[in-house]
Amino acid sequence: MAVRILLLFALLCCLLPAQAARAATDIENTVLFNEANDFFRQGSARPPDQGRELYEKALHRYQKLVDAGIDNGRLYTNIANTWYRLGDLGRATVNYRRALAYLPDDPGLRHNAEFVFSLRRDRIEPRQQDKVLQTLFFWHYDLPYRVRLLLFSSCYVLTWGLAMLRLRPAAGIGKRMLAGALVLTLLLAGSLGIDMVRARTERAGVVVAAEIIARKGDGLAYQPAFTEPLHAGTEFRLVERRGNWLQVELASGSRCWLPAAAVEMVF
């Protein structure tokens, strides 16, 4: 019995300092977050030309939280708002995309993000086949992930319920009704699966340089890929990386090379 008590005491001695350290870190992070929010609010209360220093102080504290491993949609939303107030559409876009990855169904966040996206200089039309897919499978693109997940769960339960009732001829459950529920379940499952695969395999990024010339190859010696440079906020999908150059694909399907220093990956 005495041995058990000693072991328990030793375990508590090991755990308490770690818990105290975590508690102290949490308090420090909370203080940083509140300070950053206060600086942001002070900057918002001043004319745009007078609030820059306060926004930069807020951003410095938000970034310290990111460097400390804090990772959530609320933090990235505040960072995006701050970059927007500083006039940096590229980094505002990056952080709105990060925030939306955590809070895809937040209407306020999506409204603010869409407004900032609309301010970007480059107007890149999606490929024709993508437009067709977005029209045919509008529910996949328009409905938030959580709504599709809820619909999938409902259809899944409904399908099994109808299948069980069909075993009882008196219930009057027809094949078409069961088939319809099954098709809806499979479509929604496929939609959710596509999102999960893309989240794991595709890497998205954003141009953060005010202006950059896209190249046909991984170096300055290559010819420009387009007649006009790309600008801050333009989004892309990473295809390949060679040293300090990235091959990317734009929404239009066009591919080009960009210097790594001119872009920032979402994750």
Describe this entry's structure for a reader.
This protein is of the alpha+beta class and 267 residues long. Helix content is 60%, strand content 11%. It contains 9 helices and 7 strands, in the order H-H-H-H-H-H-H-H-H-E-E-E-E-E-E-E. The protein starts with a helix and ends with a strand. The mean pLDDT is 85.
Mean pLDDT: 85
Strand segment count? 7
Which residues sit in consecutive blocks of at least 5 with pLDDT less than 50?
A: none
Q: Please indicate the percent range of residues in DSSP E strands (runs of 2 or more).
A: 5-15%
- Residues in helices, as a percent range: 55-70%
Shape: globular
Distance between the termini: 52 Å
N-to-C order of helices and strands: HHHHHHHHHEEEEEEE
Strand order of the largest sheet: 6-5-4-1-7
Largest sheet: 5 strands, antiparallel
In angstroms, what is the radius of gyration?
25 Å
Pairing-aware structural class of the strands and helices? Answer: alpha+beta
In a few lines, what is going on in this structure?
The chain has 267 residues and is of the alpha+beta class. The protein contains nine helices and seven strands.
Which keywords apply here?
267 residues; alpha+beta; five-stranded antiparallel sheet; two-stranded antiparallel sheet; 9 helices
